[in-house]
TrEMBL record:
Protein name: Penicillin-binding protein activator
Bias (Basic and acidic residues) ranges: 44-57
A family per Pfam: Peripla_BP_6
Keyword field contains Signal: yes
Lineage summary: Bacteria, Pseudomonadati, Myxococcota, Myxococcia, Myxococcales
């Protein structure tokens, strides 16, 4: 089974998912898996660096040092005696013997640093020394004791290549410990598996298998596990550990064919393994991934935590949409947590057999659910505003009001229905405002319009005089020729300071506003809009004269004949609750300055559309007493999303029986008549519908019949 190429291809997918059950890469890269070479071979030269000679005086000194060592209980002092011989006779055989003996005594007294120093010096000087193998082994063990695991591994593995029997096995065990200490988990795993295969007693076998298990759980990386498992005989006691781990890797990499092959072989070869029950469950779980229950629908919503209210609102809508049907609704609480969302999505697919899933709402939750949905090929109808979520896979759909859809609707109405061509933008410096302003600008340019000015303000700002002045060219007066000329005329007059100041103020007030735009787009909250609109009026930007007679009255009152009306456009956050008067609070606060404005929303509770009226009636009957409120966008979106799936599941002919069929049915859904509009899905699986264009007058908010106005515009009955 060629597992290595598959694992390399799938590695990036596994890392993107961040699935906790998969092992992490080695702390120090192992040989071959990352390109870093592992030390191999003998680290010592093949020829002596010093030609040692026999010397009688040196031999006598060595004999004296040996007697001193035998009579001294302090091994370190004894070692010093040998080192004195080495120092006096460095290029003699006695000097080398003394260096070896000093190293042995340091080793036995656990002075591993000096032992390592002595053996290194000896072996570099004379790698052919008679007791070189013993010196190397003690050198390697000393290196391990001081944390030089790579040096230890290199020396021990080199010695093991030439050893036999019990000595070789002990060297391999020591080398495995050194490799593990060095983070060379691939090498350590290889040796642990070999040790398990050669174990002679049950205790040795169990110890080796335990080491293998410890290495594959969070130490050895994917490729190392596959490399060691490839071609390994099932008679090796470590085979079940490696094979089951490999199966778990395949599971997290979504390599379903290889997963089933590996698990089937595992259960055939090791049916009594302690891992067998888990292997059977994993195999059953993998099989269930393609088994969908046509009448089971999953829901992912935050039902506890800070986002509980919005989760409950959507769920009320879904339940109302499925009321009276035999569809089983399986609700999973995401708690607004990305990891819980991913786990819940898997449970709905594997354990509950959901044919499709509704939700989530939050951006990050939806991205995680979308990734899992695509991997498991489960249709997901998400209700998030997160831009680009449907691009994560062909099984991901979205039914929610987006910033892009709002900008498109306003631009289409303003240009193609009202006939406006020139626009200004006034928006808050927050993601909502910036994204909507950018989208609207793009839509205007795409339709042949132009943006004459754009001003951004702080999200917590309460006064807007500066922004209003900038829009009409009254802020940077030095750039206005009429202002500069007026100031120049004053310079020739002999005026005192008071009169000069008054005259200068008059010059400023006489600077006419440059209103070179037909409309202003302001994507902000209704509270801020009620503050901005009066500030615009101060700068002679007339926003409340949709009737020509009103504009004429304003011209007569102000004496300014050049005044023109400008329409304020907004987005869904203009929707406000009703105040004490029964009117929306936007109108109560903004007064006459917000009349004649138009904004867009994804739902309008007072709409006369039959499907919307039917939903509002049913909701009030079921929930108005419980909640004390009318439904909003969240309830309406939940209702429509639930009814979409219900319509597909309840089809008398051609109802989807598999998830693939459900995906195709959703993709081909056209003109679904819902509370939020007549909906179809485009090629990007985004819901396309006619949004609600809402007009403000002093009596409240009314829905604009866009089709009717478009027809009037086409026949010349309407214009700017």
């Amino acid at each position: 089974m060629e597992v290595l190429p598959t694992l390399r291809r799938s590695l990036l997918v596994a890392l993107a998912l961040l699935l906790t059950a998969c092992p992490r890469p080695s702390r120090i890269p192992a040989g071959g898996s990352t390109g870093e070479e592992v030390p191999t071979g003998d680290p010592f030269p093949k020829r002596p660096a010093v030609e040692a000679r026999k010397d009688a005086s040196a031999d006598a000194a060595l004999s004296e040092a040996r007697r001193t060592a035998q009579s001294s209980p302090d091994k370190k002092k004894a070692a010093e005696a040998y080192l004195s011989v080495r120092k006096a006779y460095p290029a003699t055989t006695a000097g080398q013997d003394a260096l070896y003996q000093a190293g042995v005594l340091f080793f036995e007294s656990r002075d591993y640093a000096n032992a390592r120093k002595s053996f290194n010096e000896l072996l570099f000087e004379n790698p052919l020394y008679g007791k070189a193998d013993d010196a190397k082994r003690k050198l390697a063990l000393s290196a391990m004791e001081v944390g030089a695991y790579r040096d230890a591994y290199q020396t021990l593995s080199s010695l093991a290549e030439h050893a036999e029997g019990a000595e070789r096995e002990q060297l391999l065990r020591d080398a495995a410990r050194a490799a593990e200490g060095a983070g060379l988990y691939g090498q350590s795993l290889t040796m642990a598996v070999e040790e398990a295969g050669k174990a002679r007693t049950e205790a040795e076998r169990d110890a080796a298998v335990a080491r293998v298990e410890a290495l594959v759980e969070g130490r050895a990386d994917f490729v190392d596990i596959a490399r060691v498992a490839e071609g390994l005989s099932s008679s090796n006691p470590a085979w079940p550990v490696l094979t089951f781990k490999l199966a778990r890797i395949y599971y997290h990499l979504r390599e379903w064919t290889r997963l089933e092959e590996t698990l089937n072989r595992f259960l055939a070869e090791a049916p009594q393994s302690p891992f067998a029950p888990q292997a059977r469950e994993l195999l059953a779980r993998a099989t269930r991934r393609v088994e969908a229950k046509p009448k089971t629908v999953g829901v992912l919503l935050p039902m506890t935590g800070r986002y509980q209210p919005i989760g409950e609102a959507v769920l009320r809508g879904i339940q109302l949409g499925l009321e009276g049907s035999d569809i089983e609704l399986v609700v999973k609480d995401t708690q607004g947590d990305v990891n819980k969302t991913g786990q819940a999505m898997e449970q709905l697919a594997f354990d509950d057999g959901a044919i499709a899933v509704l939700g989530p709402l939050l951006g990050d939750d939806s991205k995680r659910a979308a990734l899992v949905a695509e991997e498991l090929q489960v249709p997901l109808l998400t209700m998030t505003r997160q831009e680009g979520v449907t691009e994560l896979g062909s099984y991901v759909f979205r039914n929610m009001l987006t910033n892009a859809a709002q900008a498109d609707a306003i631009a289409d109405y303003a240009i193609n229905v009202k006939g406006y061509k020139r626009f200004a933008l006034l928006y808050p410096n927050i993601p909502y405002g910036v994204e909507l302003a950018d989208s609207f600008w793009d839509q205007v340019v795409e339709r042949g319009g132009a943006v004459r000015g754009a001003e951004r303000y702080s999200h917590d700002q309460t006064t807007f005089t500066t922004e209003a002045k900038k829009l009409v060219g009254r802020y940077y007066l030095e750039d206005r020729g009429d202002y500069v000329e007026g100031v120049r005329d004053l310079q020739g007059e002999n005026l005192d300071a008071f009169r000069r100041r008054k005259a200068l103020e008059k010059v400023k007030s006489n600077v006419e506003p440059i209103v070179d735009f037909d409309a202003i787009f302001m994507p902000d909250d209704w509270r801020r809009v009620s503050l901005v609109a009066p500030a615009l009026a101060v700068e002679d930007i007339v926003t409340n004269a949709c009737d020509p007679r009103d504009l004429e009255r304003i011209r007569k009152t102000t004496g300014k004949k050049e005044l023109k009306t400008v329409t304020l456009f907004g987005a869904n956050q203009w929707s406000s609750p009703k105040g004490r008067s029964g009117l929306p609070e936007l109108i109560e606060r903004g007064g006459k300055f917000v009349t004649c404005s138009v904004y867009v929303d994804g739902f309008f509770v007072d709409s006369q559309r039959p499907a919307t009226r039917n939903f509002v009636r049913k909701y009030r009957e079921s929930y108005k007493q419980e909640t004390g409120k009318d439904p909003g966008l969240l309830e309406a979106i939940g209702y429509d999303s639930g009814r979409m799936l219900r319509q597909l599941v309840d089809k008398k002919e051609g109802a989807p029986r598999t998830r693939a069929q459900m995906r195709e049915s959703l993709a081909n859904l056209k003109d679904f008549d819902g509370a939020t509009g007549r909906t179809s899905f485009n090629e990007k699986r985004e819901a396309v519908k006619q949004l609600f264009l809402l007009s403000i007058d002093n009596k409240g908010v009314t829905e604009i019949n866009v089709d009717q106005e478009r027809e009037k515009a086409a026949t010349g009955g309407s214009g700017s």
